[in-house]
């Protein structure tokens, strides 16, 4: 197994509040790894730490074989951790060209990425004319422009209608099938069950489970876990 991200005893305190406590899990190549837990359980904080936008308090994380600096590793990561932000008066293609310039990546892949998210036929529409689901799909296309080894998504279906939710989940599955590792934070068990191969379950920053999703669901402890996590599961 080829490690993509190893998290070891990671802790993050915000003043008196411990947002992430002694967290360990490893994502291997090809995993579709979920971070599951109710609001406030430390999902976004964990993503922020490994993406170098939040400072850890203690513990460690290692990208790839551990010989890559975080700065270099992040060039091989695609991430959407906030609402997609594009220029409303520009088309999808124009917006992605700008992203390519900023990221310093080749513009020749734009159509290929728009195709993956089902937006190729709408590439010349202005961003402001896109539905919320289309905006989120464009954000995924944008995150794929550097051909990342791993795609990180924080609550990718939040706020979408059922059709939009279904489309995003299908796109994530297709991206995973083509070999991209995925890390997905969600408060929905349903989402993790449908999309993920592996999961770490968090409650108030503490790990309740990590491992395969199918093993979690078939394990004796699952219903107890469910009962203790009504909010999230
Ligand atoms: P989740 O993404 O699972 O909803 P978060 O990681 O956003 O959870 O938050 C975990 C906890 O840390 C919450 O109690 C939240 O209020 C707190 N928190 C997150 N970011 C900050 C911050 N910048 N300052 C203070 N507290 C924070
Ligand atoms: Mg969050």
From TrEMBL:
- Please provide the record's keywords in A-Z order: ATP-binding, Nucleotide-binding, Transport
Location of the ABC transporter domain: 5-229
Q: Where in the sequence is the signal peptide annotated?
A: none
Give the Gene Ontology MF terms in alphabetical order.
Answer: ATP binding; ATP hydrolysis activity
- Going by the entry's taxonomy, the superkingdom of the source organism is recorded as Bacteria
Question: What family does this chain come from, according to its entry?
Answer: Belongs to the ABC transporter superfamily.
In its UniProt entry, what is this protein called? Answer: ATP-binding cassette domain-containing protein
Name its species. Aestuariibaculum marinum
Full-length numbering of the shown residues: 1 to 233 of 298
């Amino acid at each position: 197994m080829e490690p993509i991200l190893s998290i070891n005893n990671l802790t993050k305190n915000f003043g008196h509040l411990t947002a992430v406590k002694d967290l360990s899990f490893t994502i291997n190549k090809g995993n579709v790894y979920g971070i599951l837990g109710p609001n406030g359980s430390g999902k976004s904080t964990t993503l922020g730490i490994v993406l170098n936008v939040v400072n850890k308090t203690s513990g460690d994380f290692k990208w790839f074989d551990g010989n890559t600096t975080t700065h270099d590793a992040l060039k091989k990561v695609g991430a959407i951790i906030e609402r997609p932000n594009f220029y409303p008066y520009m088309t999808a293609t124009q917006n992605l060209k700008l992203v390519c310039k900023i990221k310093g990546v080749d513009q020749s892949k734009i159509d290929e990425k728009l195709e993956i998210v089902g937006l190729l036929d709408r590439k010349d529409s202005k961003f402001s004319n896109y539905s919320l689901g289309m905006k989120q799909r464009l954000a995924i296309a944008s995150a794929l422009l550097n051909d990342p080894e791993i795609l990180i998504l924080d609550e990718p279906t939040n706020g979408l209608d059922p059709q939009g939710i279904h489309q995003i989940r299908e796109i994530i599955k297709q991206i995973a099938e083509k070999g991209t590792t995925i890390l997905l934070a969600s408060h929905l068990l349903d989402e993790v069950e449908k999309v993920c191969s592996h999961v770490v379950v968090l409650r108030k920053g503490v790990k309740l489970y990590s491992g395969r999703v199918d093993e979690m669901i078939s394990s004796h402890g699952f219903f107890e876990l469910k009962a203790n996590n009504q909010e999230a599961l």
